[in-house]
Amino acid sequence: MSQLTNHIKQLREFRGLSQAELARRLGTTSSTVSRLEAGERRLSQSYISSISQALGVEPAEIIGASANSGAKAGASAGAAGDHRLIPVVGAVSDTAWAIPATAATPPRIPVLPSPQVARLSHSGYKVLDGAGLALTGAGGYVIAVPFGAMRKTPLEGDWIVLRSREGRMERHALVTGHTDAAGAYAMIDGARLDLGPIHEPVGLVVAIYREL
């Protein structure tokens, strides 16, 4: 049987939370959170349920056989060409898009926990390794989502988020959406990216959320 590990620290840091803030949400102490993250305290079912609610994730995302098992499972389930599936923790809201071009970009991507948030399955996210390399440099990811999960055409001023392998934002680029006789396309740092038919999984994910 594979040894179970917990991903509390990874999930907490991805949401920009301190141990103290997570402890406050759980009604416990920072010391307890630290011990839970380190595996020094048993994760009971009630703790798993409480932590998943506090972090806005599914209970299964708290524990797993390994940190990379989701990525391997996703890759084997739907890899095609230079696309590779990876697990992305969190959710996307269709009401969280209007970010002005002058808005300050946060160092990490906060999650918007809301009843209106539309949770996408991990298989809905694809990583464009080939296209991403030109934009991010070595080790960078461009994360894309099917248009059908968001909207049918891109909007001007959208942000495309380029994330590193550790789930942290490496850099970002302003994406402007356009439509012509050939279909929808986007301009990223002056370069054209053809988006294709709306049913093709090549949409742009915009993952700069409103601050909580």
Automatic annotation (TrEMBL):
Residues 8-62 form the HTH cro/C1-type domain. Gene3D superfamilies: lambda repressor-like DNA-binding domains. PROSITE patterns: HTH_CROC1 (PS50943). It holds the Pfam family HTH_3. The keyword tRNA processing does not apply. GO terms for molecular function: DNA binding; DNA-binding transcription factor activity. The keyword Cytoplasm does not apply. InterPro entries: Cro/C1-type_HTH (IPR001387), Lambda_DNA-bd_dom_sf (IPR010982), TransReg_Diox_bact_type (IPR050807). Keywords: DNA-binding. GO terms for cellular component: cytosol. PANTHER family: HTH-TYPE TRANSCRIPTIONAL REGULATOR, METHYLPHOSPHONATE SYNTHASE. This is HTH cro/C1-type domain-containing protein. It comes from Pararhodobacter oceanensis.
